[in-house]
Amino acid sequence: MHNKVVYHAMKAFQSFGLPVLRFNFRGTELSEGQHDDGEGEQDDVRAALDWLDREFGLPILFAGFSFGSWVGLRACCGDRRVVGLVALGIPARAEGRNYNYDFLRECPQPKLFVSGTRDRYGPVSAVESVVAMAREPKELVWISEADHFFASKLEEVRQAIRAWAQRHFPLLLSQ
User: Fold this and answer.
1) CA distance 132 to 92
2) Do 147 and 89 form a contact (C-beta atoms < 8 A)?
3) Alpha-carbon distance 127 to 135, whole Å?
4) pTM for the full predicted model
5) How many angstroms separate the first and last alpha carbons of the chain?
6) What is the pLDDT of residue 29?
């Protein structure tokens, strides 16, 4: 929640005047509960969606980073409240876990994938395979020479999010 990638994604959405919610998954920092390998964390995403829907009643754009992108994509795909999905630094292999993205074959919302060409958790070939299997509409933006945390490249990440959102959601962004 407090890393620079999440912060810059938040700033991209805030620049359109959209309400933004950042949260920690269960068991992270001072949050309650225990890490659940991405299963229970989907309930955390759904609880956040419920809160945003109750508070604002607006269509939701989801953005997640790394593990959060994998969990959020799984929780949000097919949820009618979520009109678009942004996955930053999707992991393919990390810390002994292989991530499965087969669910993206049926994911109807517009999707933006932003990855670094030097991301050790999401090698180029693995990310391209994930995006290739994902249902349209989808877009992949490579940030040249960027690592997993997009060090020194965060403005490019923010610009990619803004450009994608402007192309796909002009009516939402003009409210």
Assistant:
1) 14
2) no
3) 14
4) 0.92
5) 26
6) 58
* pLDDT score for 93: 82
Q: What is the pLDDT of residue 94?
A: 78
Gap between the Cα atoms of 151 and 58, Å rounded? 32
Q: What's the CATH code of the domain at 13? A: 3.40.50.1820
Q: Which amino acid is at 111?
A: K
């990390």: which residue's tokens?
94
Model pLDDT, residue 98:
83
Tokens 């919610």 locate to 21
Angstrom distance (rounded) from CA 71 to CA 78 = 14
Number of domains in the chain: 1
List of the chain residues with pLDDT < 50:
none
Place of tokens 């949050």: 31
Domain that holds residue 38: 4-173
63 and 88 Cβ atoms separated by less than 8 Å:
yes
- Closest Cα partner for 86 from 106, 68, 59? 68
Pull the structure tokens for residue 4: 């620079």
CA dihedral 164, 108, 80, 156 (to 10 degrees): -20
